[in-house]
Design brief:
The protein is α/β, with parallel strands linked by helices. The protein has a single domain (about 5-225), classed as 3-Layer(aba) Sandwich (Rossmann fold), CATH 3.40.50.300. Helix content is about 35%, strand content about 25%. The chain has helices at about 40-45, 70-75, 90-100, 105-120, 135-150, 165-175, 190-195, 215-225, and strands spanning about 5-10, 15-25, 30-35, 55-60, 65, 75-80, 155-160, 185, 200-205, 205-210. The strands form two sheets. Strands 6-7-8-3-9-10 form a six-stranded mixed sheet, sandwiched between helices. Strands 2-1-4-5 form a four-stranded antiparallel sheet, with helices on one face. Helix 3 crosses helix 4 and helix 3 (about 90-100) runs parallel beside helix 5. The radius of gyration is 18 Å and the shape is globular. The protein binds adenosine-5'-diphosphate and magnesium ion. The site of adenosine-5'-diphosphate has 10 residues, from helix 1. Adenosine-5'-diphosphate binds near residues 17 and 41.
């Protein structure tokens, strides 16, 4: 999908979180980098309507996010850093089934879709486990299953590996980069993950600083902090 911001600003009580950002993106995997407080999460949240622009316009696909928040939410799933905050139901399978509730499918179909989603992320064997007992990495895979089971076109992951060790980070990265049906916006401080994306976007202090080849954007980012 085309992600398009036209002179978008976001302000909180007079503080500018994003300052007149315009961009056009349609790459499969999009990295978003920049220092803490630079506006990355604000950008990510604009894309599914969690944050509203103070001025300007956000288009995702054919959807004007502010004019049609329902579609914006349906077409974009969101993954947060803390997987505990995303678990809604007691068991793993129930948690994925819960995402399908609005579809009002039969129990057999719901259960089959949920199991297939778990299999896709390699956690089919954990279906009947208590969700809160999973490892952090497994919880993020569960979040991915629960979000992707409704077939969103876009997955926005805001520092999805921030709380994970190397091994779990690797698992979640493989799952994200392995997504066949979804475009991914990956906000991350893990520059090795950013480097694997098709394009990188860098924010600093609410400004869009640079968009381009991840290797180049990352190299300049590192240089600025040396
Ligand atoms: N809900 C909010 N209320 C007030 N200020 C906020 C809110 N969300 C973000 N901000 C401010 O906006 C700026 C950008 O924040 P954020 O987009 O979360 O940055 P990042 O994700 O890059 O760390 C920061 O100065 C932050 O304090
Ligand atoms: Mg953030």
């Amino acid at each position: 999908m085309r992600i398009s911001l036209d002179s978008v600003s976001v302000e909180w009580d007079g503080n500018v979180a994003l300052n007149r950002v315009s961009l056009d993106l349609d790459q499969k995997n999009i990295a978003v980098i920049g220092a803490n407080g630079s506006g990355k999460s604000t950008f990510a949240r604009l894309l599914n309507g969690l944050v509203k622009p103070t001025s300007g316009r956000v288009l995702v696909g054919d959807t004007d996010v502010q004019a049609d928040p329902k579609t914006a939410q349906r077409q974009a799933g969101f993954i947060f850093s803390n997987p505990d905050l995303q678990i809604i139901m007691p068991t793993v399978i129930e948690d994925v089934e819960f995402s399908l509730k609005p579809r009002k499918l039969g129990t057999t179909e719901t259960s089959a879709l949920a199991r297939a989603a778990l299999e896709r992320f390699g956690i089919g064997g954990l279906a009947d486990r208590r969700a809160h007992e999973l490892s952090s990495g497994q919880k993020q895979l569960l979040a991915l299953a629960a979000v992707s089971v409704t077939d969103p076109k876009l997955i926005i992951a805001d520092e999805p590996t921030a709380l994970l060790d190397l091994r779990n980070t690797q698992q979640v990265a493989e799952a994200l980069f392995g997504l066949q049906e979804q475009q991914v916006v990956l906000v991350t401080h893990d520059l090795s993950l950013a480097a694997r994306c098709d394009i990188a976007v860098r924010f600093e202090a609410g400004q869009l600083i640079e968009i381009g080849e991840p290797a180049e954007v990352i190299a300049r980012y590192r240089r600025d902090y040396e």
